[in-house]
User: Fold these one by one.
Assistant:
Number 1:
Amino acid sequence: MSETKVTSPAQEAFEEWERETLRPLLEKHPERKSNFQTVSLEETNRLYSPADVEPLDFERDISFPGNFPYTRGIHPTGYRGKLWTMRQFAGFSTPEETNARFKYLLAQGQNGLSVAYDLPTLMGYDADSPLSEGEVGKCGVAVSSLADMEVLFGEIPLEHVTVSQTINAPASVLLAMYLVVAEKQGADWKKISGTLQNDILKEYIAQKEWIYPIRPAMKLVIDTFEFCTKHVPRYNPVSVSGYHIREAGATAVQELAFTLRDGLEYVEWGLRAGLQLDEFVPRISFFFNAHNDFFEEVAKYRAARRIWAREMRDRFGSTNERTLKLRFHTQTAGVSLTVQQPLNNIVRVAIQALAGVLGGTQSLHTDAYDEALALPTDRAALIALRTQQIIAEETGVANTVDPLGGSYYLESLTQKMEEGARDYFRRIDAMGGMVEAIEKGFPQRELQDSAYQYQKAVERGEQVIVGVNKYAMEDEASEVPTLIIDESVREHQVNRLQQTRGSRDAGAAGNALEKLRRAAQNNENTMPATIEAVRAYATLGEICSALRDVYGIYEEPAF
Amino acid sequence: MNERKIRVLVAKPGLDGHDRGAKVIARALRDAGMEVIYTGLRQTPEMIAAAALQEDVDAVGVSILSGAHNTLCPRIVQLLHDQGMDDCLVLLGGIVPQDDIAKLKQQGVAEIFLPGTSTENIVKFLRENVKPRE
């Protein structure tokens, strides 16, 4: 039996254009190259037309902002009601230095804070641990105990300023420190809002700052969900992060797929722990990268909202609007910044930030131009913030909701993103879930492959990086001043740590740590005991060490 | 005649977990016909030097993006020297401010590769600079 091919009028019109208009021209004027690819190495068609969006149904797939499936945004008024939160990630050196940077950024019109911790803090080591040597205050601010946290947020009213904390393996400890500082300021926990990154799954996949094995680490995450739902109801206890997955080499589809599948995993673990879907899921937030390929990024954010809404409805049966709506933070792609001709990075960041805004982000961090060299100087950090303010106040893109919606290319790409992510969901579901997929090394290998393919494409010149593999300059005189953090920071931090250990009630700290160990052993929620330990000035290293005693440590298998 | 393959230890010292670069380079060196051993994350300089000796490598490629290079690299060079491996090249890749480069070279780091370096340049450097063995 022969199959009759049904061709729609739109498809017929497109084919006629190809035949009558395009082909004669191509014979005379061939295109610049045979294959046009996105930064994710996905092929892009020459033209998108009504034929490409025919499978889409406006009501079902696109709809209006504020309406299911939220492709066009979660707010009916977009940025006309409220602009996105300009939240610059900052942290370096001592808590005193970072506190000063925070106050400077707030004075310049920034409206939310975002803390970067140094590597010892991220790994749960105190500043005086031998493993911390050379690393204290380098990649972020050094925090070893409540005493540091009190300085970090000195004169910053935590009831009124929303603070995002980038901390993962020891997140429950830093949350406890934050809550105790807030309490000492007289702030009401019920009014505090802010975000804890606390996304341990992407650590095993991409960023690799882990402490404990994956299953107890997941349990700690769920402890914070449970605690915040009861006691800090306006706080987001997790920011499910694709940012680091992308930085580690993922394509846009892989970033989207692994991040949302991580999100689904947290929902499943929360439900298994007895939490109520519509009580904790509305406080799950997301964090995406904004890379160079403009349309691919905008499509990714729109697809993310649509997929999440559909998964919450279809997988978990939610009809609660707050559960269905995906909220996210965006950061421009650090990995795209170049050491060569560093001022070019200002332009890259502006375009990436624009993609985040046109994708409907709730908050945004713009990278500073000197971040391929070091942590940003004041000047570089200020230009990064001004970039957002220019987009918000000068370009007009915030005047209308989802201005790119309806573009044949964008809608078709959004659809392709959703299909690509769903294909990964099927493979991961078949493995038993994301924890199991990570244990098998599946997302890790996918990322490594993509990173390698991208590097090869750059080296073949197929992916152009201006100033690096094209338009490079010999002996460029592009020196920009960089921030230098020396070893005196460690000395300063070790001094405070010794003072803290010397002046605290040693018995109380010891008892609190013992209580925490028991809570972990008995599979109880660890948050109350963690808070008690923090109050007694037990250090981050001591608390993590107590949990290591119970849970052990993660060893990465060779993939 | 069988030429000995160049053997390289790719190492991640310090607390930094960003291993994209280390893994891309390990694979590129393998594709270029070298023998590559990857240490995994969070190795101390002592562990790296011990692995270099045990694996009898011609070069150690160190990847650091956290800013801890001034503490870690000279120590790796010193430990290799102490165990008689002066011919073993130490290469550094990562985010290294311009001011640190000359100092690190003086301290015995053979070459520093910044972001944007092509893997071909690293392969070429190793082929040209690894000391031939008997």
Note: Residues 75-459 of chain A form a domain with the TIM Barrel fold (CATH 3.20.20.240).
Number 2:
Amino acid sequence: MSLDELEAEAIFVMRETVAQASNPVLFYSVGKDSSTLLHLARKAFHPGPVPFPLLHVDTGWEFREMYAFRDRVTAELGVELIVHLNEEGRDAGVDPEHPEYTDIMKTVALRQALDHHRFDAGIGGARRDEERSRAKERVFSFRDANHRWDPRAQRPELWDLYQGRVNRGESVRVFPLSNWTERDVWEYVLREGIDVVPLYRAAPRPTVVRDGTLLMVDDDRMPLRPGEVVEERWVRFRTLGCYPNTGAVESRATTIAEVVAEMREERRSERAGRLIDQEGNAAMERRKSEGYF
Amino acid sequence: MAAPAGAATAGTDAPTPPILRLLVCGSVDDGKSTLIGRLLLDTEQVAVDHVAALARDSRVHGTNGDDLDPALLTDGLSAEREQGITIDVAWRQFQAPGRRILIADTPGHVQHTRNMATGASGCRAAVVLLDASRGVLEQTRRHTTVVALMGIRRVVFAVNKLDLVGCDADAFAGLATECRELAAAVGLPADGVDVIPVIARDGDNVVRPSERLGWWDGPTLLGLLEGLDVGADARAARPLRFPVQLVVRPDATFRGYAGTVMAGTLRVGDTVRALPSGVRSRIERIVTFDGDLDVAAPGTPVTVVLADELDLARGDLLVPEDEPAATAPLRSHAVEATLVWLDHEPYASGRRLLLRSHTGTSGVRVARVAHAVDMATLAERPAAGIGLNDVVRVELAVEREHVLDPYAREPATGAFVLVDRTTRATVAAGLTVGVPSPFDRAVEGDMTAQPSLVAADERRGRLGHAPVTVAITGMSGTGKSTLARTLERRLFDLGATVVRLDGEELRLGLSRGLGFGPEERAEHLRRAAETARLLNAHGQLVILAAQAPAREVRARMAAVIGPDRYLEVHLHAPDDVRRERDPSGAHAAVARGDAPELPGITSGYEAPEDPAAVFDTSVTELDASVEALVALLRDRGVLGGAA
């Protein structure tokens, strides 16, 4: 029963974070990994409340359904939600077409929020199977006062004796789902009946094909390029981010069970649908060393 | 957020073996990354877009011509792709048909013992890779030694590149013998070792059987790994270890202790003892999000509610109420341990360190470096200092009394790390050996003994006998004190100058305040032995009567006194006789349930293997025993002249 073992490990890691950190936070991106983390947090601290706030770094370019889902779920569960948007970036008109978009609206925005709230531990949903450089990441990953990750100066991580204490200004990123695969997350979502954004389930949606990727036209925030024709297609999403950069897959899987069944056959990585990850092999490594989680 | 419970049908969750956490290690160029990449590729675990990226990378960085270079799948950092070596521990999940396998890919070069130990600490089994054309190298020895040191008991030697020796069955057989000898030399159990031939580059016998290795009738590497039993069930059979991770106190009505069962079983209704306080309470509830449990097995995260308000804190340890002293956790300020030094900065006295384990955190310093361990030969050698990649046996002085188990007995509570208090970096991995024997305790400062101006011969000439210590050992009620007193009288009457040391009497003064646990008992006996040594040095005959239940401690006493001067006498008597005699009321106290500890009853008594004399005191008359001992002393030339 791999899922039970993975769940136990994640709960242990979350408890350890709360025991060691003075001001922890959960990075909540509204996606399935975040929903899974939130569910695990409820389990870890039951019957107590989730003992940390959720931080959503909002680009202003998320799918509308994500905002609705975020507000509904956090209200239902009574958890504290902090939303941070890089307002300077927005005011400067940085949109997903902007070459520095990811850096300004995600990396810089996250640093702003961490500095402002002085969080010393951030729980994130990253998994080691996502990308090659992630395989070297610790479960408790140390960041210096500039939020930098130095792969050559990582703290050795022995047994399950995680070292989460840091000096002032430094922080750790904590990854309870390190050893999970995308399929594990889906199997777990199914098993536990975890509520996820409806975009993960297939439905007829307005789409365009851009640079070989299926994009959903969520609303008029995304201007169409000349020649692009909006067509309704049955699609769902494997990952969710800012919608002009997030590719959909064609699917008729309208329930989580059907999504899981499709996942069992899937041969492409989930990030295959993300435009920002295709910049080159070292892209993720570089972004991480700059503070992107 | 809960969906209808009916929606949560977990598909085909057939009973699968537990996740295999597998260390893969090998020397540089043995093909470690290639082997791991091959396992992933041939079980079709690699996403098609990653395979496409691999194909691009293989043309640029690959070492396999135009073919895919599987090694590039796992060499994750751009720096190491350029250098072609793995510089850190990489973790890979991988779903084999029959099992989830989690691989720790660790570097092979000598300066990275540190990373190997780190990878090994999270693993239950190891694959040690070697190059058939180069055989067992020093690196192979080092890797196997680290694997054994870190407590891994299931090891597969994968003999790679058999094509370089013509896929020859005899060459493989020779290497297999070498591997098994190596495994035995580092203390791995023979039934925990497999040797298997592979050609990782081409995938022979990794996932698929190989035609070139047609003579091999054993399993493929993957087949072997899928079925590997790593003894996960053994955890349940060991005594309960539940370290409190977090106190959960949402309101005034609920106080629970969150944690994971590390060993043994937690059961509602069971009485447990909390360490270090030692207080007892009953498990009232085992709370989880999905409902209360009656029983929690090892690995289960739960929140425990006790029947009494104990006010436990993080690091407190729940153990069985009635755990015998032989397996109970150690509680000590002094810890004997093996350290693997991980920091680039060598250890310097005065460096402020913390010891961190599941049972808490405390300030710590290295009190004594006993020796270093040579990782290539396992030999002990003098330690000049403690630097990066060194493995040393040390005695630690812990500020706060620490609760630990020997790592070999219980890894969960035997493992610890040392953390630099200033940088907060993890500087060493620690494996608890035990509590150092009081006999080994370091001497503080520079102390010298002054030689006497009186020679031993002069004393012997005046006293008329040689100085020896007659050490009478046996369980309570065997008549040690009686024999000691009668023998004292008899020797005095013979003209000897004799001093009788009775264990119980020493506890009234010299050993006052010492308890009956193994460590304090050893300290009590060390003091008795040191006293006997001093008296012997001054020519006196000594009769020492003490239970001294541990063979190891008696050996240390003999060493203090001097083997030539130590005469061991073993007394025994049947249970009912000893219970009847019960000179100090100890048996009665045990029967009432309020005795601390009684060797032979509540804990073990190890009978001497080769005593100078042995008497069953329910059979041999007292006077007969005394005369037999006098005769023995005459035989040995102790008594002569005046006596």
Note: Confidence is low (pLDDT under 50) at residues 274-281 of chain A.
